[in-house]
Amino acid sequence: MTHPDAGSGASADGPLDDFDFRLLDDIQEMYQAVDPMPADLPERLRFLLSLRDLEIEMARFVDEELSAAAVRGAEQSRTITFDSESLTVMIRIDANSDGTVRIDGWLAPPQRREIEMKTTADPLSVSSDEQGRFAFTRVPRGTAQLIIRSAEPGQNGAGPSVVTPALIL
User: Fold this and answer.
1) Distance from the CA of 150 to the CA of which of 15, 58, 62, 72 falls in 20 to 30 A?
2) What is the per-residue pLDDT across 107-147, written as a single tens digit (0 to 9) for each?
3) Domains: count for the chain
4) The dihedral sign for the CA sequence 152, 80, 93, 44
5) What is the extent of the structural domain holding 86?
């Protein structure tokens, strides 16, 4: 594509003109067709921005294993592990018949903690037991994120709050 002012002395460092804006629009349309923005990106960004003022430790995604949850072919179970400096969190996600999911989790080292599940609906809260086990029986599908806090303010040995990356349930 040749600029209409090519050879007329127009400078490449000059201000953008209508041709430049049309070219930029064409480039944008090409990227939207080939590599569109994920539909849930704004939702994921809101999740991350809501955590920016917390004193937290971010957990890293370690692995994910997909396996059949039962003999029925459509049902699946996912096991995901997150690791941070002070805590490892493993969760298992199983589909419920009502369209929600059940999340069973384990903390290592085992300890009592307050666990919040941020969802696109209302946040859910549970406590882990002494062995670090916890469960959310009905979590709506969509974007979700775990925040693991000390069970009691000033509790020794529990460490900072730990936040997992956002998950798509």
Assistant:
1) 62
2) 999 999 999 999 988 899 999 999 999 999 999 998 899 99
3) 1
4) positive
5) 41-168
By the 8 A CB rule, do 98 and 107 touch? no
Residue 141: which region, alpha, beta or left (left: phi > 0; alpha: psi -120 to 50)? beta
Here the tokens at position 19 are 């041709």
**Domain assignment present for 148:** yes
Position 10 confidence tier, pLDDT thresholds 50, 70, 90: low
